[in-house]
Amino acid sequence: MAEENAASTILIDETKAADGSSRYPAVTQLTDLIFMLNDGQFNADCADKLKTFAADLEERGIEDGKKVKGKITLTIEVDREHDGVYFFTPDIKLATPREKHGRTIGWVTPENRFTPNKPNQGNLFGTVRDVTPTRTVRDV
Q: What is the mean pLDDT of each run of 10 residues along the chain (140 residues)?
């Protein structure tokens, strides 16, 4: 902790700043690194994003009545300069599940074209029927 500077015989305390306040401790856990990023601002900026992410998952789970899955990806780019200086660039991605649409069954023809008709099976009703309404709705 305290080292003696050989040039001036002044005792240097590595845990205290010049004004007497505590210096930020060295990183020993991942959470320490996250708190260090942008002097804690990155962590603070993520709070609202996490809250929105949780709300989106909760809403989706209630609407669908099923299990929903999200994903949190934290990336920290670390660049080391030639003189031993490090730069940390954080990024967070929060992904909620995409909205799913109903499935449509299909097959592939011998010409490699998609079709809703099963090959080598006759059609009972011909092509897909038009369900467009034939009447017009009047505005009263």
A: 54 71 80 90 94 92 86 95 94 86 81 81 64 69
Using alpha carbons, list the distances in angstroms from residue 100 to 63, 68, 70, 96, 97: 12, 11, 14, 12, 8
Long-range contacts, 25-33 (Cβ 8 Å, 24+): 33/76, 33/88
Beta partners for residue 86, in sequence order: 80
Which DSSP string do the residues of 92-115 spell out, in sequence order? EEEEPPPPP------EE-TTS-EE
Q: Is the pTM of this model over 0.70?
A: no
Number of Cα atoms under 13 Å in the Cβ half of residue 75: 8
User: Can you say how many angstroms the Cα of residue 30 is from the centroid of all Cα atoms in its chain?
Assistant: 18
